[in-house]
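Board notes, transcribed. Complex of a protein with 1,3-dihydroxyacetonephosphate.
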Amino acid sequence: MPEAVPAGPGSRPGARRPLVSANWKMHHDHIVALHTVRDLGLRLGEPEAAVEVSVHPPFTDLRTVQLLIEGEHLPLALGAQHCHSAEEGAFTGEIAAPMLARLSVRYVIVGHSERRGLFKMDDEQVAATLRAVRRHAMVPILCVGESAIERDAGATEGRLQAQLKVALGALSAKEMASMVIAYEPIWAIGSGRAATHVDASDAAGFIRSLVAAAGGAEAAAGVRIQYGGSVNAENAADFVAEPDIDGLLVGGASLQAAEFAEIIRAVAGCYRSSAS
Ligand code: 13P
């Protein structure tokens, strides 16, 4: 893996490799996924290698995308959008972590606000799911973020603190160091109204301070923090130029390979690879 290093004046410093993730939500069947991922793979070259990219298609696409990535050696990590916390059992419609691990899934989104809001996933379920993902040696992308009402009430930090207290309580300091946390303000998701990079940076800094309090300095230095919510090719670089923001979790703008590749390119422009 190439180490990300500062690219010179105007670029952001830091040794954490940026992670840009495509959360396709309930879009693209496995045929469309095949074409989209192949197209994306063709668009990524050496300049983008400083950026790690994960693709999170619907469950029914996972096997197809896994075989494509492995067969064509695409520079992409396979991701899932959710899983249940139990190893197996009578949970109609759910998917277990070991099933994802068998498909070489590397990243699993845990506690996305759509799971929390629409499917009533609570903080304890989020914590149990984090443990399940770790048990099977996958990396969780834990989503946290405030609603518009909480934001207007000045309760953003309180919300983040409450969500992270329970979630981080489920993990060791070492696990925290290797996890990913996505700051996704609910009001910015799918709204076309992204947070400002200053607000996102403040939230990411606050999240890192909470990880430091829970897991110590090494955990805080290692954890990667993404921003998500109406990210596009125009605003992507502004976010990752912030020292506490190590990548992006992208919904709508990740569905088309050309648009998503532009975002990855914008992020890569803030880094350069030290690999020779
Ligand atoms: P949008 O990029 O469509 O706003 O979605 C963000 C998101 O929820 C990613 O998980």
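The pocket of 1,3-dihydroxyacetonephosphate is lined by residues 23, 112, 184, 189-190, 228-231, 249-253 (CB under 6 Å). The chain has one domain: 19-85+92-275.
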